[in-house]
Amino acid sequence: MGPFITFEGIEGSGKSTQIRLASQHLEERGIRPLVTGEPGGTSLGVKIRELLLNRGPVEIGAESELLLFAAARSQHVQALILPALREGRWVLCDRFSDATIAYQGFGRGLDVAFVRNVNTFAGGGLVPRLTILVDLPVETGLGRALDRAARQSGPAEDRFEHEEMAFHRRVRSGYIEMARREPDRFRVVDGDRSIQEIHREVCMHLDALLPIAGDSCPSGTSAATKNPSPS
Ligand code: ADP
Fold first, then answer.
1. pTM: predicted TM-score of the whole model, two decimal places
2. Whose CA is nearest to atom 4 of ligand 1?
3. What CATH architecture applies to the domain 4-226?
């Protein structure tokens, strides 16, 4: 199985930007990762994404929201993620189960233990090998997300940008709590820095998963070398 790596964080934390750069970094090292994200990744996921993120007047309760995300995830894991991992490919995924715990559990107030059970069912028990949590103050993230929406042409996706600040603060602290509970899986990177600075740190964490880690991080940052070349 290839390594399954997820990127998490609040809106506008820079996950998509960092995934794009991380994918380029891996490609420079001869690895062609599958880059995907949630909700989405499959035709069913795209339809569910439209429902969830462009809901307009459609009312979706917290429980229905949880189940829609779960339905999208189940299809995503079975049809796309697992087959790629089984082929030995690296998979980089923009949000996964932790987002459901952060948003529907901590944010919406659904029972976190129940959300975990739904996640286990929907994700077929798949747990990321590494989760990069891009952390930053909610004001900064939302400011960026709103700027991004203003620049987009056509109907912009209304993600969770219009939820109250307190909602986003609960989501952020939920993520931080999860990272504290699973320090082996999570790497928390400070997202309130330049894109390149964050990227250098992300590279370090990715390189630590390579069997033979090199020093190809930009600007000479040396990679974490867990398994140096035996030769
Ligand atoms: P996310 O996927 O986490 O919602 P994006 O990667 O789409 O976030 O970034 C949101 C917006 O902020 C984009 O317009 C992006 O260009 C910008 N951005 C991303 N990272 C940074 C950064 N470190 N500093 C300033 N702006 C950033």
1. 0.90
2. 12
3. 3-Layer(aba) Sandwich (3.40)
